[in-house]
Design a protein that fits this description.
five-stranded parallel sheet, four-stranded mixed sheet, globular
Length: 830
């Protein structure tokens, strides 16, 4: 087939003598060329629950909420004709070649009637028998007998490597018609709860709580399970009927052998069959294989060159080729384990097919793939040879090696080249599953063989094995997703992710993580979805894969929306980096942080906003220590954090109170305040302005509403003084505020300018007022206020603040500043 020519199946129909064989060899699913042409991207949209899933093989699947108008219609039940057609399509294909003999059910009539009676009463039955006991044949016969018992008919399922979820979705697809719609688990439970059918489920691998979950979800169904004794038993309250299936009797076994050979056995062959019955415990499969051995012996007796493989092996024996009449019966050991001997007498294509089956763990590729794998255009006929020999058994829509055959072939050396065969199969399936002509339904039917070809390559010992597994998983996973076989989809993704990790293919590993996250989101596992998607986004971000990263972020946003938590996309990894604009204003501050303080500061610096409240003049009577405290509080910044602001206020307040308590005894001269000591513009940084009122409104220092009086220019005049002229001292100092003042401002250093509240301000050596004298440097003879004078009484700040009038208040306000340089430096440091 030319990969670039996308012909439909109808274009392959031809007339002629070998139309069927040519159609099989030119199956659109089977390549004829070893070169792969560029393929178009195959995207499929389907609805999963209330999600709209777009399967994108390139960048990863995209998922979004499905709009109400785009929701599919409610599923509709299949009609009887549709159920019959679907059952025919899902049955294993008829092997090519001459048909084999029809084998009857021997010694199974009693079990058959009992099973039908139990199912007619609505009871579920568990049929347990060893592998090769004929369970599948009995189940098919009982299913035919129960065709008219239930309103939804008979549903046939395979439990081979299937979970409870897989079986529930398989039951839903068998009863309902809902294209490209996969209901969520709640919707599925509601739909299967009303199904009334007889479900024939072969190769069950579930037991215990998993089996009970299946029964509880389908109360209107009657199940007929076929399983082996090694499967876990059901729970005690499952109400399952148990039916055990044993082997056939001696006479029935010999009769079955004669039906397979299609002739009467000789006495020697009957004795050999009796010994085989004792050895195999009457398992029907052993007698089907023994009948194949007798047929091969008959052909050898008539035509010694009938089997090339047998002739080659016989030539190496010390006895040479046997004569036609001297072909002996197989030994008892060969009759009990006949796989190797049967395979040696098959065609070369059939033996190569067995090599691939062993490499795939017992899974047999579909007959349409055998010509490409084996390299023989007629290799599809090998399936018929293997089936007639009893080496295959049906498993759902396909075939696999019969019970015990895999171990027998491995012991005979068929697994020596398993790695090479598995890699060849993986490369073929990677080409085939990614081809646009292959539908998702066809890929799903071949899922077991595809997965089996990936498993032996991880971890791979040879170079290139893991890369082949990555390529196959990358091609097959989207097809499994589009076919809504999500059990196979998850297995392919996990194998591909591990193979990509081992091979070091980071881009492919990111793709598998993304798909696993989307799958987890569809199944409702939000924690798993978040972990997988975050891993994928991180990898793709490192690779600068913008398209893939965007798809991952969209899926992550949907996970955050469904989980009810704020999305982590756009948030900084630490508190040092600002968030994005869409999350910056929506984040609430934690407890203990003022609401005005943003959790993450903006990059653009905002000018500080000062908040100052001016007290009325009546509060001047409480000046002193309390006045200093309120002055500091008025200069607090709005955006300070609560803890830092408290610590800063405590430090400033302690310094101010200490200076106010000790300044009266340390420097008697510091009680005279002149008009030169006024507030400056620099004080606005700490909340101290030159527009604040003085303590005595009568002096003209301020108005009653706290604003400065006209003509004062904002300068504070000490209370208790009638505006002395520059350079003069105040002879009328209050005796209660300290010792008499001495000296003039020009004789003392001006280390700080007191404000109207008594808080010292920073010195302003530059830009002096032209009309005011510049303070001179202190002379060395002047004493430095270091120790308090014993003769100077120290007034309690609290007593002074409460008993003093306007004059005392002004003096106490001036005392808090202090003219000494030590006091000024201390204030600046604080």
């Amino acid at each position: 087939m030319d990969p670039t020519n996308h012909r439909g199946p109808e274009e392959h129909d031809r007339t002629g003598e070998d139309t069927g064989r040519r159609r099989q060899s030119r199956d659109p699913l089977t390549p004829e060329s070893g070169h792969q042409a560029p393929h178009q991207s195959r995207t499929v949209q389907l609805v999963s629950g209330d999600f709209l899933l777009t399967v994108n093989p390139v960048d990863g699947s995209e998922i979004e909420p499905c709009r109400p108008g785009e929701m599919p219609a409610a599923p509709v039940r299949h009609t009887a004709a549709e159920r019959t057609e679907r059952e025919r399509a899902t049955a294993p294909p008829v092997p090519p070649g001459p048909p084999g003999p029809r084998l009857p059910l021997l010694e199974r009539q009693e079990e058959r009637e009992r099973l039908v009676r139990l199912l007619a009463r609505g009871r579920s039955v568990r049929l347990t028998g060893p592998a090769g006991s004929g369970r599948t044949a009995l189940l098919n016969a009982v299913g035919d007998d129960c065709a008219d018992l239930a309103p939804d008919g008979v549903v046939r399922l395979s439990g081979y490597k299937r979970t409870t979820t897989d079986l529930l979705y398989g039951l839903f697809e068998a009863v309902y018609r809902s294209p490209l719609h996969r209901p969520d688990r709640e919707g599925l439970s509601a739909l299967v709860h009303g199904i009334g059918a007889v479900v024939v489920l072969d190769d069950l691998e579930l037991g215990g709580a998993a089996l009970q979950e299946l029964l509880d979800a389908t109360p209107e169904c009657a199940f007929l399970f076929g399983t082996t004794p090694d499967v876990a038993a059901p729970t005690a309250d499952s109400n399952l009927e148990e039916v055990f299936l044993a082997g056939l009797g001696r006479s029935a076994s010999i009769e079955l052998l004669e039906r397979v050979v299609e002739r009467t056995l000789t006495d020697e062959e009957a004795n050999w069959a009796g010994d085989l019955w004792f050895e195999s415990e009457g398992l029907p499969l052993r007698f089907v294989q023994a009948g194949a051995l007798l047929r091969q012996r008959d052909r050898l007796r008539t035509d010694p060159e009938a089997f090339d493989g047998y002739d080659d092996e016989a030539a190496d024996t010390p006895f040479g080729r046997p004569e036609p009449a001297d072909v002996p019966l197989p030994s008892l050991g060969e009759g009990a384990a006949p796989a190797a001997l049967l395979a040696s007498r098959l065609s070369e294509a059939a033996r190569d097919t067995l090599h691939f089956a062993v490499a795939l763990g017992g899974e047999l590729p579909h007959q349409a793939h055998l010509p490409a794998l084996v390299g023989d255009t007629h290799a599809d006929a090998a399936l018929g040879e293997l089936f007639l020999c009893g080496l295959l058994s049906p498993a759902g829509p396909r075939y696999r090696l019969a019970a015990g055959v895999l171990a027998q072939l491995e012991a005979s050396g068929y697994g020596a080249d398993a790695d090479v065969r598995a890699r060849t199969a993986a490369q073929h399936y990677a080409w085939w599953s990614g081809h646009p002509s292959v539908t998702p339904e066809r890929a799903v039917a071949e899922a077991d063989a595809v997965l089996a070809s990936m498993a032996p390559l991880v971890p791979g010992d040879q170079a290139g094995q893991t890369s082949a597994a990555v390529l196959l998983a990358r091609s097959a996973a989207p097809a499994f997703a589009a076919g809504m076989q999500w059990g196979a989809w998850e297995k392919a993704l996990r194998i591909g992710q591990e193979a990509a990790r081992i091979a070091g293919e980071v881009g492919e590993e990111a793709y598998f993580h993304h798909e696993l996250g989307v799958l987890a989101l569809c199944t409702g596992n939000l924690d798993r979805a978040r972990a997988e998607l975050e891993t994928s986004v991180g990898m793709r971000g490192a690779l600068a894969d913008k398209a893939g990263a965007v798809a991952g972020r969209r899926a992550l946003a949907l996970v955050a929306d469904r989980s009810g938590e704020p999305s982590a996309i756009g948030r900084p990894p630490s508190g040092d980096e600002p968030p994005t604009a869409r999350h910056e204003d929506s984040v609430l501050p934690p407890a203990g942080v003022p609401a005005a303080m943003p959790l993450f500061p903006r990059k653009v610096a905002e000018p500080p906003t000062l908040i100052s409240r001016q007290a009325p003049p009546a509060a001047a009577k409480g000046a002193g220590r309390l006045g200093a405290r309120t002055a500091v509080l008025r200069g607090a910044r709005r955006n300070l954090v609560a803890v830092g602001a408290g610590a800063l206020l405590a430090a400033v307040l302690g310094t101010v109170v200490t200076l106010g308590a000790t300044s009266g005894s340390e420097d008697p001269e510091g009680r005279n305040v002149t008009t030169e000591q006024s507030a400056s513009e620099d004080d606005s940084e700490n909340g101290l302005t030159a527009d604040e009122p003085s303590d005595d409104p009568a002096t003209g220092g301020g108005t009653t509403d706290g604003s400065p009086a006209p003509g004062t220019s904002g300068r504070a005049t000490p209370s208790g003084s009638a505006s002395p002229s520059p350079g003069t001292s105040d002879p009328g100092a209050s005796p209660t505020s300290g010792s008499p003042s001495s000296g003039s401002p020009s004789d003392r250093p001006t280390s700080g300018k007191p404000s109207a509240t008594g808080r010292p301000t920073k010195p302003t050596p530059t830009d002096p007022t032209p009309s005011e004298p510049t303070p001179s440097e202190p002379t060395p003879s002047e004493p430095t206020p270091s120790e308090p004078t014993p003769s100077t009484p120290t007034t309690d700040p609290e007593t002074s603040n409460s008993a003093s009038g306007p004059a005392e208040s002004a003096t106490a306000s001036a005392t808090t500043a202090g003219p000494g340089p030590e006091a000024s430096d201390t204030t600046q440091v604080a």
